[in-house]
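User: Crp/Fnr family transcriptional regulator, Rhodoferax koreensis:
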Amino acid sequence: MRTGDARSTLEGANRPRRTFWIEAPAFDWTALTNGRQARTLSQGSTLFEQGDPVRSIFVISRGRVRLATYSDEGKERHLMVIGPGGLVGDWGVADRGSHLTAAVASVDTTVYEVPAAGFLRALQAEPELLAQAMAFAEQRIQALLQHHDLLSAGPAVKRVALALTGLAHAHGVPHPRGVRLQVRFTQAEMASICSLSRMSVSTVLKDLFSRGLLLRDGRWLVIAEPGKIDALIGSPDR
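Assistant: Predicted structure for Crp/Fnr family transcriptional regulator:
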């Protein structure tokens, strides 16, 4: 498939261009991080738990953070993954005073910790910073809508196809063989966000590779047939 054909297929898909994966948003949080020491977290470390008091906001400098909520019975629901340039911990700071989600480092991650009171003062003092925070809040609402779509998609193949399509819209670039995803993810991350087992995700990806719908370009994933991946989302359940 020619690059232009692949890109036009994605651009013309009748599906919102949103993704659960917020990678490297074009925001500058220097006003919050100036003079602060970066803090490194190992993979699996918890920044905060759902319901904890909001004492700090975290600016992600490197790595990825996964947000999740828990039911009264303790069942975990994964919401989104946020990469460098993103904020976590600000939900609940102005109203409830407690974190609405839990936040866990998906990989080794570096963050800047900003006291909640200082964060609110900065938003009040700097209109541009406030506008930026609102824009990032909108991106995360889009991610929540994508997660809702994923959970409503049904079978594993539809959930993974929808996730791949969202990633292509948000992080895809033209490639001679199709559309290359400019983000890398682990099967565990894909399984978490799609509410599937890692084995189910592995099975779906192997099938897509065997059918030539997905390819590898070094460490990058290439969607070779974007139209066919998108068609899987609307196909009858199986």
